[in-house]
Amino acid sequence: MKRVLILANNLRQASYRVRVEALLPLLRDRGFQITVGLRKTNPITTWRLLASAGAYDTVVLQRKMLEGWEARVLRKAAKRVIYDIDDALMYFNRPVSWHSKLRTRLRFRATVRAVDHVVAGNEYLADIFRREGLAATVLPTVVDPSRYAVKQHAETTTPRLVWIGSRSTLQYVRGQLPALQAAAERTAGLRLLTIADQTLADAPLPIDHEPWSAETEAAALVRGDIGIAPTPTDPWTLGKCGFKIVQYMAAGLPVVASPVGANAELVREGVTGFLPTSAAEWADAIRRLATDVDLRRQMGEAGRRRVEEQFCLEKVADIWATLL
């Protein structure tokens, strides 16, 4: 039986929940003995955890990059290290000091030196590490389709867009408000459902809000008719892995998304949704789906099939088992 140590930074973080925790029962069923070690702020406790890596066949470092001393301890102790990453942590989504930039650059270099293989959430992230000479496997963030009810599309006088996310990415919806306003002006009854820890205060169309929770998110999605994923283009967003799109497709919703990073890999233009590049194209795509129930149903069914075939936990568990 292969022994695996997973080094996690925060057991409540979304990345850990969906990329690690959900897979643990499936990997254990495949014969792996898995221990999850939580990195602490206490350096002595962390040193002991990293130094214990030699007792395992493989160490999986989940998401957070290493300080220089952590990298040295882990590399000396571990037989093999795999780094799992689903965000462009080497970049920033906000202005930061030169000191923060330097520290992040040093941590990136230390992490590169410490690992043997990278599991990245999309091709953009994988290529960053391939340029450093590391082998990388792309594994998107996936779902258990059985958790998601499938939307039963029907004619409606109040077609509803749905967006799932958090306050940190709500700005992306706000940036697309002119397009949503144009769509609302051309589509009678159009509404927006936000599933998040915060919603929009001022919007050019009626807003419904569902506070996000892990227990209710899947059921809340089918209250919508069309999933949206507006995303600007910058080094940070190119590293986003499009998990909300996988969720929309699992719920049988057609998707309208910016063709940025993993979005363009996940959405099949004209098959599971649309990838508009301008405000006018966004408005056209939304209006077309909002007024055509058959198209919504067709794209929703195609998206659900794609999740079941390619973006489900069982599929990813098989690939992880091979890597481990």
Q: What does this 3D model show about the protein?
A:
The protein is α/β, with parallel strands linked by helices. The chain has 2 domains: 2-139, Response regulator (Rossmann fold), CATH 3.40.50.2300; 145-310, Glycogen Phosphorylase B (Rossmann fold), CATH 3.40.50. It is 40% helix and 18% strand. The strands form 2 sheets. The chain has a 6-stranded parallel sheet. A 6-stranded parallel sheet has the order 9-8-7-10-11-12, sandwiched between helices. Strand 4, helix 5 and strand 5 (117-120) form a beta-alpha-beta unit. Helix 3 (43-51) runs parallel beside helix 4 (68-77), helix 4 (68-77) packs parallel to helix 5 (98-114) and helix 8 (177-186) packs across helix 12. The relative contact order is 0.13. The mean pLDDT is 95. Pfam families: Glyco_trans_1_4. It comes from Humisphaera borealis. This is Glycosyltransferase family 4 protein.
Into how many domains do the coordinates divide? Answer: 2
Low-confidence stretches: none
Number of strands: 12
Dominant shape? globular
What's the quaternary structure here? Answer: single chain
Provide the CATH topology of the largest domain: Rossmann fold
Task: Using the CA coordinates, give the radius of gyration.
Answer: 21 Å
Q: pLDDT average, as an integer?
A: 95
Cα distance spanning the termini:
11 Å
**SSE order in H/E notation?**
EHHEHEHEHEHEEHHEEHEHEHEHHH
SS strand fraction: 15-25%
Number of helices: 14
Note the main sheet: 6 strands, parallel
What is the assigned CATH homologous superfamily of the largest domain? Answer: Glycogen Phosphorylase B
Helix coverage percent of residues?
Answer: 40-55%
Name the CATH class of the largest domain: Alpha Beta
What CATH architecture of the largest domain would you give?
A: 3-Layer(aba) Sandwich
Pfam family, one: Glyco_trans_1_4
Protein name: Glycosyltransferase family 4 protein
